[in-house]
Amino acid sequence: MGSHHITLLAALMVLGSHLPLRTSASTTPCAFPAIFNFGDSNSDTGGLSAAFGAVPPPNGETFFGAPAGRYCDGRLIIDFIAQDLGLPFLDAYLDSVGTNFSHGANFATAGSTIRRQNTTLFQTGYSPFSLDVQSWQFTQFKSRSQLASKEGGIFKDLLPPLEYFSRALYTLDVGQNDLTAGYVSNMTTEEVKATIPDILTKFTDVIQAVYGLGGRFFWIHNTGPFGCLPYVLDRYPVRAPEVDHVGCGAPFNEVARLFNLKLKETVMQLRKRFPRSVFTYVDIYTVKYTLISQARTHGFEHPLVACCGHGGKYNYDIHWGCGAKAVVNHTKVLISKSCEDPSKRICWDGYHYTEAANRWVYDQIVKGAFSDPPIPVTMACRKQSN
Ligand SMILES: *[C@@H]1O[C@H](CO)[C@@H](O)[C@H](O)[C@H]1NC(C)=O
Ligand SMILES: *[C@@H]1O[C@H](CO)[C@@H](O)[C@H](O)[C@H]1NC(C)=O
Ligand SMILES: *[C@@H]1O[C@H](CO)[C@@H](O)[C@H](O)[C@H]1NC(C)=O
Ligand SMILES: *[C@@H]1O[C@H](CO)[C@@H](O)[C@H](O)[C@H]1NC(C)=O
């Protein structure tokens, strides 16, 4: 990381001596007035919860003090982004009660994929709100919010003005579920790899649609090392030589890295296709894998064990998700509960990261150390001068 900074600084100094005006312009923060987010549970702030049943306690216990639509004890990376941009937390588009979209909206839902799945949520757990559906919702959000605002009254205070759409930051964190869905449908690792080009074609289609609606500044997270997550390790136990030195499933992480390589190529093509846009590609994989593989160094413990869960090697049981209750002697008791200190844990519930882990990851990426180009989130509207 340090070397990244030094290289960037050196590059800026060289540029600065030739192009003083350009350099000073590119140091002014973007002042994004809104965020529009698309994705899966990594950035769902209440979508699936609103549509398919509320996220139960102890979710939300660390920061919100009650469930807050997030599969987490507290804040997600998207929440830290919103806070640092000086914007309120994003409300879910699907949430119809008490929402305020004046500074953006969140179309992400837990279990979302890029490609439409041919199964229902009740069969395999994947959300019906795939990325293309999220982009239809965004299309409606843009047109209908303007109609409603025109009526004035309270709506003007709850919806973004038209000019925000071209100045907003568009964030995306999606793809992991497309890869695990391949395994759920019994594909081999080679077969899952073969689906990546089609997944990324669909991803490009959505970026194109958002661009067509005025989106210009895109902040794209790559996918994490899902081979280190309890739900994957529990369902697909791995044995040597397929286990890495940390205990993660190497073939799954290899698929994630291939997806990321192709995603990065896709982003490079998008830059050429939409030269007026700014695309920032963020290497979340490396940050999460570093945290998991060096947990102790960074003040965390049991990196592969869920904090909130029920039993087994990973404190994870698919039938007893975080917050599950059972009737014992005619009384409902919480049997899948939180660990003692979530602030020392990385994995919250077997699928998702704790607030502490999300914060750690956010702290690594916020200044651009893992981004291409290496610019902070507050500057993600600036083209790298070259
Ligand atoms: C769903 O089925 C269609 C038609 O057979 C197919 O083209 C598509 O690839 C399938 N989607 C997934 C995610 O498997
Ligand atoms: C919506 O949120 C914005 C920003 O936090 C706030 O200024 C505005 O008053 C809110 N609107 C209503 C109707 O509460
Ligand atoms: C995958 O294989 C398992 C075990 O053989 C089977 O129970 C399941 O129905 C299969 N799933 C699909 C989608 O074919
Ligand atoms: C349920 O009640 C019986 C009888 O009072 C008791 O022996 C048993 O330990 C109780 N089970 C649990 C799980 O508390």
- Radius of gyration from the alpha-carbon trace, in angstroms: 21 Å
What about the largest sheet? 6 strands, mixed
What's the count of strands?
8
So how many helices? 14
Strand order of the largest sheet: 2-1-3-4-5-8
Task: Tell me the CATH architecture.
Answer: 3-Layer(aba) Sandwich
State the distance separating the first and last CA atoms.
22 Å
Strand content bin? 5-15%
Could you write a compact summary of the structure shown?
This protein has 386 residues and is of the alpha/beta class. It is built from 14 helices and 8 strands.
Explain how this protein is built.
Belongs to the 'GDSL' lipolytic enzyme family. This protein has 14 helices and 8 strands. The chain is globular and about 55 Å long. By secondary structure, it is of the alpha/beta class. The chain has one domain (3-379): SGNH hydrolase (Rossmann fold, 3-Layer(aba) Sandwich).
Key traits:
386 residues, alpha/beta, Rossmann fold, 6-stranded mixed beta sheet, two-stranded antiparallel ribbon, 14 helices, globular, disordered N terminus, binds 2-acetamido-2-deoxy-beta-D-glucopyranose, glycoprotein, signal, SGNH_hydro_sf, hydrolase, SGNH_plant_lipase-like
